Amino acid sequence: MTVDRTPDDRRPDHHDRRPDHRFHDERRPGDPRRITVDPESVRRSLAGLVLTIVELLRQLMERQALRRVDQGDLSDEQIEELGLTLMALEKNMAELREHFGLTQDDLNIDLGPLGPLLPRD
């Protein structure tokens, strides 16, 4: 089968093609859509994300520990050790937040209609 081509429906030559904008970025420095990345803000943001996850896990562990204490599953020594461990972990989290210049509210991601990630005390 042969297809007759007219000059109007031939493929354009390479120099006739417009650039594919998916691969070619024509934005100039100072363009408001351009993202400028400050290494310090990236470091702080990454630390905030990691500490948010750690804080979420810390709070979940604390709630689980309190449930076990309420159920009477633990001895007095285990309760004491658990309390000291949770207090040390909370203190370490406070030190890490201070080191990175973050507050407890900085770690509480707003999930929109679901509300904040971490419960407010």
TrEMBL record:
Keywords: Gas vesicle. It is found in: Gas vesicle. Residues 1-38 are annotated as: Disordered. The keyword RNA-binding does not apply. It comes from the Bacteria. Belongs to the gas vesicle GvpK family. PANTHER family: PROTEIN GVPK 1 (PTHR40137:SF2). This is Gas vesicle protein K. It comes from Streptomyces milbemycinicus.
